[in-house]
Amino acid sequence: MQSLRSPKWIFLASTAPLLVYLLVCAGEFSVIRTLLPAASVGEWQAFGAALALLGLGGAGYAAWQLARRQPVAAWYSGAVLLAFSLWLCLLTTHGEALLPRSVPAWMVPTNPILMAWTFLMPTLAHAMLALVARFTPDDRPHQVAPNILFAVVVPMGWALVFEVLTWLGRLLRGTSPEVYTGPSRTETVGTVIIVASLVVGTLSFFFFLTRALFISSRRRERSWADGGLVWKLVVTIVLPLLGLGLNNGLFFGQGFHEAGGIFGNFSSPWFYVLTIVNGALLCLPDSEQPGLRLAQLLGRSALFGFTFYFFLVFLPFLPLAIPAIILIGTGFLLLAPLLLFVVHVRQLADDVAALRTVYRPRLVTAALLAGLAVLPLYFTGSFWHRRQVLHEALAYVYTPDYTQPPRVDAEALAATLAQVRLNKDRNFDLFFGSQQPYLSTYFNWLVLDNLMLSEHKINELELIFTGDVAANRSYLWANLNGPPPPPPPAPGTSPTTRRFSGANLDGFDDPAPDPGAPQLRNAAVRSRYDARQQAWVSWVDLEVANTNPGFQNREYSTAIWLPEGCWVGDYTLTIGNRQEHGILAEKKAATWVFAQILSENSSRDPGLLAYRGPHEIAVRVYPVSAAEARHTSIQFLHKEPIALTVDGRTLALGDSADAALVTAPITVPGSGVAYVSGVAKQQLPLVQRRPYYHFLLDVSASQADPANAFRERLAGQLARPLPNGAPARFSLVNAATTPVPAGNDWAAAVGKTGTGGFYLGGAIRRVLFEAQEHPGATYPVLVVVTDDFNNAVLDADFENFQSAYPESDVFYVLGADGQLVPHSLRHAARQPLSSASPAGLPAPGASTPVRAWPDAAHPRVYLPATPEPAVVVTGRPTVPTAEAPAPSRWLAGLLLRGYGQWQSFHPEITDRERVPFIQASFRAGILTPFTSFLALENDAQKAALHRKQEQTLAANASLDTVENDQVQPTATPIDSGALLLLAAGLLLAGWHLRRMRTAAHRLQA
Predict the structure, then answer these.
(1) What residue ranges do the domains of the chain occupy?
(2) Measured on CA atoms in the order 739, 743, 747, 748, is the torsion positive or negative?
(3) Is 519-661+930-953 CATH 3.40.50?
(4) 689-833+844-848 has which fold?
(5) What is the pLDDT of residues 276-293, one digit of tens each?
(6) 413: phi then psi, degrees, rounded to nearest 5
(7) Crossing angle (nearest 10°) for helices 74-93 and 185-217
């Protein structure tokens, strides 16, 4: 323990945590500074300067003592205890001034007051231990009893101080009937005395308690008669086990809580096992044999991480130990981690000192460090493995390489998803905390990049890789069988506008529209032809208002279908008396900020514009209050005159009389992308390809005996071949998609499978990928063969793959009744089409002519024979760079559109090339599916957006920021239990203060 007086510990226990704390606070302050009044800015600067001076003073003193080769002096330890305790008390009492209620909580995810109680506690702990070591030298005898007596007297002194102050308040005020007008001088003095007694009393209590423990740990009793082993067993095993049991609810008559506790989730049996093993190692007598003593050092140091973890978890709660002991009989268990920590540190010090007399010091130090690294390396390795498993699963499902089979450990993934779900639970119920302090934060940082995984994706991954349909039945019905949105426009007709609730930007079906939602009051168009870039620049101005003027803080939202060749180039929202241009930001970061502002339910003014499909943008404006009219505008860049429909109003953009028809394809040399107008498409040759059945056979775990179940159905279907059709193909579908080689017996292949879920969405995308990559004289007619189509994991639609099915977007489900049921790939894939096929949908087996690009002799792409324009991608497109920009903004939009279309078939490059693609979108000012326009009210919101964007761009592209557009903050270093207990301590102190004041007020009355 005397080694703790080394000045080196100041750098580790004080300087480093203070530096991290100041950097984090500086980052938070830079975001919210513009929202703070001048007085709050002054408070931040004053507290920051004071803490920086304390930190610099400590570092300077440590350097000076190192140069002098002197230990830490007692006066320094005492000064640190008083100075930092006073700073913490003042910071806590000035919390309202530092963070006024006008500052949204989501902008400060790491509360500086809570962080202070965590980051400054190591400084106080080291100062306390150094002070105890200074007054407990090894060369003098010391008694335990006086220290225990002083430690016991302190809680009693608290009650006495409060009673005396209450009596003095009554005595000095007398019975005067004057009306109370605020705190008197007596109350002020009483408050100062109470705060002083709290600080001095708490420090004294821990000083004497730690000193008593330190003295006891130096004794060498090894027998039960001497009491040494009994004392060690109580401190190292009994108290920790009682603490774990109390945390998990064993003493509240509610049974054992398997997924939570008072201070966090410590319900795993391993916590109890490690507690017993750790205590046994500490209670074992020190071996006289050097080899065994070295083994004891390795074991004790290996489990020191376990002791230190609980010491760190309970460190911020130590100031609550005294009131907890007074109010709650089991409050003394808060001290168990401190007692165990002192015993463990002392034991390691004795082991090192004894072994250095036998072995070389470097060997002993190496053994100590190796043992200390065991648990940190174990958890880091375990979390890293879970990261790899999760990222492999995310890549296979959301950014797959369609040429590679899955390589996912389903069992490890299930365990990882269970941990992710537990860490997502931020239930603030005191007795059901499901997270593990610090470990959950480390897990979220290392595994999830400080983002999150939505419940939709967790359930989807579980269904795909485990096939547990029963456990996810509610997910299947809630997320995949919801009411379908209105269909997209039929070829050759005017597009319609979909209204939605704003609950989804990521492809989920929309709930029923809100009849009382704000509506479009007026719409106007401003168009001009830009001869330089030979494209139209149009502004659509929207005015929205509530249908009922009595409504407050409602959200206006709508979706607009865009024709090919039309890009979004700007967005504005009128906020107050100014027109605010939207910031083009990364989509997930923008959606997170928008959701956070909406969660405030205040009058702040955000507007969001983002893609919700390959050809559809979503517009959201908040708030629309009372009779106020909100104005928002969208800029469109389009090559030809177009018509848009917004909330049922058809708007004409551009005038065909002012510009010539586009009769030839438009290309950027070497880009691999071309824009083919409707007129130019009609000039391409018509060809007719041969269809073939491609059967997707359900061989998942939920499908019983698929070979026998499918044999008769397929025989009947194959007996009715497609007109002029090619031979049928087969693929086996579970978590993976396994093509059956041509000519092989599909029934024999089916008998070798039967695991995992029915991942139909992945199978369809793989077949369409092959059709796109290898266009030929034949095309697939997809037939899904399954006994229960509801068990399929299926995308909402496959509209971004539409270039792979130019003939028809129909696929079929062959169910247990042997009937072919048609479904659409472009719209609501899970919902059956009506018996009367909509116009434009071919009958089963019919072949529709298509256009061949660039010619019929060497076709590289097939296009639908419709009058709509198309973007043709014949290879990997180039993306505009800062060194090689596009000739115009419209052409930049064409290149970005082409790259996005190509990336739909090659999602494996998403993580690697997403950031350059987004940066190209920023430079061109063109909206893409990876970006959003976000109009914000103030600079603080913009700073928060940029901070979140840095985080999302550095993370895995498949991770999320919001859960169904509800605020789910991530990456907070303080566990919710700390917030509750710190609040409890403050309330307790406030209760004593109020008790004294209330008594005085009653005497006045």
Answers:
(1) 1-135, 221-372, 378-480, 519-661+930-953, 689-833+844-848
(2) negative
(3) no
(4) Rossmann fold (3.40.50)
(5) 999 999 999 898 899 999
(6) -65, -40
(7) 130
